User: What shape does this take?
Amino acid sequence: MFVYLSKKIAIPNGVKLHSLAWNPDHGWLAAGGADGLLKVLKLDAPRPAGATQAPSNLSMNQTLEGHQGAVVCSTWNANYRKLTTSDQNGLIIVWMLHKGVWFEEMINNRNRSVVKAMKWTPDGQKICIVYEDGAVIVGSVDGNRLWGKEMETGLTNVEWSPDASYILFVTTDSELHIYDSQGTKVKSIPSLSDRESKKKRTNALIVAIDWYDGLEGYADSMISASRRVEAPSCHRRASSPGMMEVGVFFSDFEAIRTEASDRDAPRRYGADAGRRVC
Assistant: This one.
């Protein structure tokens, strides 16, 4: 692997950044920071083979206005070219690209809690939003709220299975709960600290999670049976591989994998001064 610094970008006035989201399909980078700062950047297209220098100019450098508080969460919908962001006040904005400029398309604010994570399905049809107080909202790309529920514990992260059949929630206690796409609970996985209490590992916090699609195969089969997640056969799809893995990163940067037998969105909007409100 060859890695080099393509470009160093300075943030105006030294504003502290709180979130970054990369869109690998189109090369956009969303940077969210304090005082409502939100910028969408894009480097020039890569130079032809044999070029001696990497691209140095920004083909896009737009500041998006709409947030008042620090932008703490952002996620891309690559298929529909949408960006979803949320700030420390709980305000969610969906942005769309029109004639090369990003515009506010939809907004939402529960006015009760802060968004901890948002994730679109791989096909971009649904988004799942999780709040610090345990609330979950799943909606469609056109702005319709599909379902919502209140979990018994706070949430910190969320991930869809590659075929959008299941949703994986991470709690404040670093427990993993798997639900189907309709909000029915399928399985719970104890926290790592519970499973490894003998090692006195009591403060392991999950800080990132990714559901592997299996397309590149599996390096080994040495995964502990205690990490296996069996999903009901009635939920299985013929197109789904027989084995899935969930990668979990903890606060001390140790990665584990969780096996699953199957694999696997954001709200209702109304009009308000030209805005569509969830």
